[in-house]
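How a chain folds remains the central question behind the approach discussed here. No coordinates are needed to read the tokens, only the vocabulary itself. For completeness, the protein is quoted in full, as a sequence line and a line of structure tokens:
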Amino acid sequence: MPVNPVDAKKLATEKNTTDLRQMLEQSDELMRAVMEKGDLETAEKAAQEAAAAAAALIVRKQGGVRELAKRVRERVAGEDDAEEAAAPPIAKGDAS
């Protein structure tokens, strides 16, 4: 589930940088702990909270929602390039 930029901006205005970093660290620790126990649903929720905190930090420290959108576009483009590089080449039939 993607992070809503409006929610990230709201969280960035409600919390200060230290609170957001603590939220990110706690979510990461919770995610690791529940993954070790095999509770993937709770781990997914913790990962979503960590993503929201990371997005809010970007909004707060790096110039707003536009910077967040720019980073998302760059990451998506990078993942698309990685998928294309990992895909095996398509073999063409011999026309002779």
